[in-house]
Hints:
- This protein is α+β, with helices and mostly antiparallel strands.
- It has one domain.
- It has a 5-stranded mixed β-sheet.
- Strand 1 and strand 2 form a beta hairpin.
- Helix 1 runs antiparallel to helix 4.
- This is DUF3800 domain-containing protein.
- It comes from Lacticaseibacillus suilingensis.
Amino acid sequence: MKLADQSYTLYLDESKMRIGNKGEDAYCVAGIIIQSVQIQQIRKRLKQLKQEIWHTSDGFVPAPAFRSIHQAEVRNPSPKNIDHHPYMQVFRSRSNQNKAINGIGRIIADFELPVLGAIVNEKSLQHDYGAHQDSYTAYYTSLRVIIEDFSHFLVNHQSHGKIMFESRANAKGNLSPQFTIQVQHPDD
């Protein structure tokens, strides 16, 4: 059995957060799976969304075309973050926050993009395994779950793929994957 000619990329991002009533530390890794033939269409939609958010008539500093939109920056545009990245000032506006979140949600829905996610509570990890566990342990535990799920996805779609850890772009906006997963069926 030959693998299908389609390939997929899993775009990942991580976040540390507090969960539960006690505000316990947790680590989350989440991502979307994009088929290679969809990438250009999705980039076009993201560019349109960015143009809608960073229109120049409001006097906002425009974001670089390749700039990633991170949920934490959208929901919490801190003065320190804005000082370092003036183009993030657009997210002081609740309307622009909603445009970003809803716009990305529409892209995910319109392209029917699979979403993967895993979250690990650091205190539970320490309790269950009886030794001090840090954020790196929680991150790698979450990442392992995501990689296994993506591998299963690729097997089920008789395909191959790569994983992009948090978007990284050069000065021209070109993204380059950091490592590749190849899945080969036992019948090959």
